[in-house]
ABC transporter ATP-binding protein
Amino acid sequence: MTTLTKTEDTPAPTGPGAFLSVRDLRVQFSTEDGIVKAVDGLSFDVERGKTLGIVGESGSGKSVTNLTILGLHSKKTTTIDGEINLDGQELLSASEKEMEKLRGNKVAMIFQDPLTALSPYYTVGRQLSEPFMKHTGASKKEAKGRAIEMLTKVGIPQPQTRFNDYPHQFSGGMRQRAMIAMALMCDPDLLIADEPTTALDVTVQAQILDLLKDLQQEFGSAIIFITHDLGVISHMADDLLVMYAGRAVERGSVREVIKEPQHPYTWGLLSSMPHLGGDVNEALMPIPGSPPSLLTPPAGCRFHPRCGFTDTVGGSLCSTERPLLADGRAAACHLTAEQKQTIFIDQIKPRLG
């Protein structure tokens, strides 16, 4: 069974204006090979009407975190500790019946692959209408009217006709728009977007991002935007959380983190991206090595086996002691503030242009 326990640490106070507060979240999965420590001591806030971007490589814990918020993990194989508070309601202690009332209503999710998230057996209109009727008690006629209204808002042409189409009759971009319409049917206060533009071409991707920003302004929803693409996040987010191997390693406003990153992992992410105005013939600098196994994660800083600055810290601190992530603008790294500044100015900034 899923084990829900309070942590020994006193949770940090909810930030001003925070609609969602996550404190010391730990998520572990039982597998045949052992215990997977997918999320390990994660804390963050999301404010009303704001977008929090979460970035990191595959396996960093981004999607696991947000599936935990929605209560979608298997109860047989998952252990969850910590606190998740949504608008005053503690979610980890909520019953499945309470979570069913929240999902699709107060909290909604846009999944990465709409073709697998949408059922091929039912029309798009039915898949939009039925959850709306369940949560609001609306009639079939009222639900159809709302669905057509939302399909119109997300830019689906001929929504009255498309209402009766099946997902396979939609293009990739239209399916993603339909997923957004479904997520917004009940005016959710929190919208979780899990890499919603990964499979789309650049033009459609830009249209979807602009659509999400416009709809956020209209509905005032808080958004958690999950991606591995810092270019996308710079366009979408107000605040940014960088995750690595189940832990948060850096956070701040999106401008602060992208313009003046403080963690070696963030430096690596930015250095491995092409930049406008850069030399097209200049080789990108990938992060060496691979993410660690979360069955047996490294002690100390989990990034230290791939980090090129452990010698600057000196001794065995990086491999033995976990660096903490302070509140506000911060990076979980044993480098001193002066060392970070010197390395960034001398080595990292020239790469970024």
